[in-house]
Design brief:
There is one protein chain. This protein is α+β, with helices and mostly antiparallel strands. It folds into two domains: 71 residues, Type 1 dockerin domain; 166 residues, Sandwich (Jelly Rolls), CATH 2.60.120. The protein contains five helices and 16 strands.
Length: 247
């Protein structure tokens, strides 16, 4: 314990308050699609099939005249793979960003966590009618859009993939860019969190230090900050570097 005390004294004298910086993540779709209704007569408003997305995805609502189907509905679908994040890292903001052209009007964007890297009709239907989050929006005349994801979506975080669908109420086509840097992408910002704050009180303090010292030299996973399967001097130095309020 005397040696540990010397390590503590040296580290504490040299500790620096760490400042956490938000990290920007830009996700491009691993798959995309354009939905269509059934080919059966009079079924122009459904979503029973889809085709792979091309460089542009055109969407519109269905139309009827005199009880007859005059135009099919189409929606845009994107599937994004979420990166691996540490248990202490938190998402602070997420948005669907891209460029569009053509018709304007009201619409809906829906998000749903998925466990598969493949777009399926069932996945699309679940996202449309049982989303984890949805947002009514107005597609304006601007060519650029940024639609903030409701926080309830990314706070749930219960899948490795996110499916997003987008629609418009206009019978006239609106076109999403689906190619290159201007394509429809998911952007989110994350904070590294405060893994040394073992008691989750918003700061790394003496209580956290004593907590780590209490399991020093063991394989306690909760206090293993450097991931080497042992609580040792590097973990102590990590804690001292973060000493103070979590940033």
């Amino acid at each position: 314990m005397t040696r540990l005390s010397l390590v503590f004294a040296a580290g504490f004298a040299a500790f620096a308050l760490s400042i956490a910086h938000a990290e920007t993540h830009i996700l491009y779709p691993i798959d995309s699609a354009r939905t269509s209704p059934s080919s059966n007569w009079g079924s122009c408003c459904g979503t029973s099939s889809f085709a792979p997305g091309s460089a542009t995805i055109s969407v519109n609502s269905c139309t009827y005249q005199g009880g007859y189907c005059m135009g099919d509905s189409h929606r845009a679908v994107w599937l994004y793979e979420m990166p691996q994040m540490s248990s202490s890292e938190t998402i602070t903001l997420m948005a669907l960003v891209g460029t569009r052209s053509g018709s304007t009007g009201s619409g809906v964007v829906s998000w749903r966590w998925m466990n598969t890297p493949t777009i399926t009709t069932t996945g699309i239907t679940d996202t449309l009618y049982s989303p984890d989050a949805s947002q009514s929006i107005n597609w304006s005349g601007s060519s650029n859009f940024s639609i903030t994801t409701p926080p309830s979506m990314f706070m749930a975080n219960d899948g490795g993939y996110i499916m997003v669908t987008a629609s418009i109420s206009s019978e006239y086509a609106m076109n999403f860019s689906n190619n290159g840097s201007s394509g429809t992408r998911l952007v989110f910002y994350s904070e590294p969190g405060c893994p040394s704050d073992f008691d989750s009180n918003g700061s790394v303090d003496v209580t956290d230090l004593l907590s780590l010292l209490g399991v020093y030299g063991t394989a306690n996973s909760d206090h293993d900050l450097d991931g080497d399967d042992m609580v040792g001097v590097n973990d102590l130095l990590h804690l001292l570097d973060a000493f103070g309020e979590c940033q």
